[in-house]
Amino acid sequence: MNIIVKFFKTRGVGYYLTIPGLVLGIVALIMYNQTGVTSFSPALNQNAIICLSVGISLCALSLVADFKEIKYIAAIIFLYSFMWYLYSQVTYITNVFVAIDGNTFTADFIVTFVSFILAFVVTLLAGILTRWHPLSKAKPAGEEV
User: Fold this and answer.
1) pLDDT class for 144, splitting at 50, 70, 90?
2) Any idea what the Cα angle at residue 135 is, between residues 134 and 138, rounded to 5°?
3) Is 110's pLDDT higher than 60?
4) Which of 85, 98, 111, 138 is the most buried (most CB within 10 A)?
């Protein structure tokens, strides 16, 4: 039990932010698979799916090996998958802005869009805050260990 407590006490804030990043990546993947095919985009973009899968895998890997570089790479890959998502949905976005088939985005599109963005942002914050330990007992400068 002491080993588990020590494991979680030595982890920074970024470790705990990786979990929501992982979950948001999974939500984005599920939502894109369920709602990505529309009359405006007849097929799912395989690059977006591959990038999301790699980003999710890297987030899971960073839960085991807590390196900030892995989290940064996962965040960049989530951003790259978001760009592929936008590329696949550009006709739909254009039709909404021009108001050809309505002038509002569907709830499915908004949830998927926000999931992609939040997966990137939360994973980036996890990388930035990896070494921040606000709950650990800081020793004053000059005190020996």
Assistant:
1) low
2) 80
3) yes
4) 85
Q: Where are the domains of the chain?
A: 42-100+119-132
Other CB atoms within a 10 A radius of the CB of residue 140 amount to: 5
Give the chain as a DSSP string: -HHHHHHHHT--HHHHHHHHHHHHHHHHHHHHHHH---SS--S--HHHHHHHHHHHHHHHHHHHS--HHHHHHHHHHHHHHHHHHHHHTHHHHHHHHHTSS-SS--HHHHHHHHHHHHHHHHHHHHHHTTT--TTS-PPPTT---
Q: What's the token pair of residue 139? A: 């020793």
Concatenate the DSSP letters of all residues of 27-39 into one string: HHHHHHHHH---S
